[in-house]
Design goal:
With 233 residues, this protein is of the alpha+beta class. It has one domain: Class II aldolase/adducin N-terminal domain (L-fuculose-1-phosphate Aldolase). It is built from eight helices and seven strands. Strands 4-3-2-1-5-7-6 form a seven-stranded antiparallel beta sheet, with helices on both faces. The mean pLDDT is 95.
Length: 233
């Protein structure tokens, strides 16, 4: 992908998360990487989504976080995105929002439970939540350490970033990802919707149990992996 095409795709993705209802004001950002060039394109900090143009999208080196091209300051969450790309080599795009129901779970420091097949079609597990950041992490390299606690959650918790393409940062909000921007945006949309469904399901039945594991795996692998058969293969 050319740098121009990468920037154009990032503009579209940032506007899509607004139109999907995941973002108010400037509470969110989307990025994508070109692994061949070692560059990440990400929304510039504080710029209105409707005003975005490809030429405004900064290009940042994955290796050291330096701006390689662009006059505008990249998103304040840039370091978090970079940690995710360094930690998850198959991730090609990352979406961060403050979508309502996902944030409610993050603030409650509770994972989004897998209660049924809608969730299982996209996430093989509960959507996990990180530990709280420690005071020294908040006061120090805060954005970097936000990415570190996500990476730590996956390495220590035994999660795989491909079948579990998203997480909640405690007291903060959701991050979703995918192999490309289309899938990352879709996963961010699904993450918010299954959070909404889980919230209301738990109101109806406070003691509801998680979906049967056999059912979860059947639904997930209908759509993902070598044996997938959903859709027009």
């Amino acid at each position: 992908m050319t740098q121009q095409a990468l920037r154009e795709a990032v503009v579209r993705a940032n506007q899509e998360i607004v139109s999907a209802g995941l973002v108010l004001l400037t509470w969110g950002n989307a990025s994508a990487v070109d692994r061949n060039s070692g560059l990440m394109a990400i929304k510039p900090s504080g710029v209105d989504y409707n005003d975005l143009t490809p030429g405004q999208i900064p290009l940042v080196r994955i290796s050291d976080g330096a701006v390689a091209e662009g006059e505008l300051k990249p998103s304040s969450d840039t370091e978090t995105h970079l940690v995710l790309y360094r930690s998850f080599p198959n991730v090609g795009a990352v979406v961060h929002t403050h979508s309502h129901y996902a944030v409610c779970f993050a603030q409650a420091e509770e994972p989004i439970p897998c209660l049924g097949t809608t969730h299982a079609d996209h996430f093989l597990t509960d959507i996990p939540v990180t530990r709280r950041l420690r005071p020294e992490e908040i006061e120090g390299a805060y954005e970097n350490d936000t990415g570190v606690v996500i990476a730590e959650l996956f390495s220590d918790g035994g999660y795989d970033a491909e079948p579990t393409p998203g997480a909640l940062v405690a007291q903060h909000g959701p991050f979703a990802w995918g192999p490309d921007l289309r899938h990352a945006v879709e996963n961010a949309i699904v993450l918010e919707e299954v959070a909404r469904m889980a919230y209301h399901t738990c109101q109806i039945a406070p003691g509801v149990e998680r979906a049967d594991r056999t059912l979860v795996e059947r639904h997930f692998f209908r759509k993902h992996g070598a044996g997938a058969y959903y859709g027009q293969q």
